[in-house]
Amino acid sequence: VMATAGQMKDDQIMRLARATFLDRQLDPPSDQKKRRNSVAEDFPAVHAGMKYLLSTEMVHFNRDNQLYMATPLGRAVCASGLSCEAGIVLWEELKRLRNQTGLCLEGELHLIYLATPWEASVSESLIDWNVYAAVVEGDLNKQQQASLDVIGI
Asked: What is the crossing angle of helices 10-18 and 44-55, to 10°?
């Protein structure tokens, strides 16, 4: 859903699922098994994935149009290349920082935050501490220093 036009109907999801390698492995063309025309019954893994995307609010189901639509969060996670799980963790962290602290990153500090790979923040072995030390020990104004304190640096 997220990698396509951003919205799909059930029949489009079914058509997409039937065009996958997984479908050919699970239901070879020679197998005359009757299809039920239901994503939940014919493709339980796809159905479970859609339920997960709905529960994480990466996809919204519009009942009026019967469309699954990618949310702004879903589009952002898809465009970022992060896994769904990593995208959710990052989103929750940003919401927490904004709601609990009123943190608003500006200027060069904002660019550093945006340019730092998220994966580096969860793996200390990927962080070049000398670079971080140079930034932190540099000429930071009070607002920038307060931002670093809130982030936990």
From this structure: 130
The first and second tokens of residue 102, run together, are: 């009123």
Across the beta sheet with 59-62, the strand order is 7-8, 67-70, 59-62
The answer to whether the CB of 87 falls within 8 A of the CB of 80 is yes
The answer, as to whether pTM is greater than 0.85, is no
Structure tokens at 101: 């602290």
Per-residue pLDDT tens over the stretch 100-139: 777 666 666 666 666 666 665 556 666 677 887 787 777 7
Identify whether 126 is part of a domain. yes
Q: What 3-state class would DSSP assign to 59?
A: strand
User: What's 124's DSSP letter?
Assistant: G
Q: Is 94 inside any structural domain?
A: no
Does some domain include residue 89? no
Q: 32-58: per-residue pLDDT in tens?
A: 456 667 788 888 888 898 999 999 999
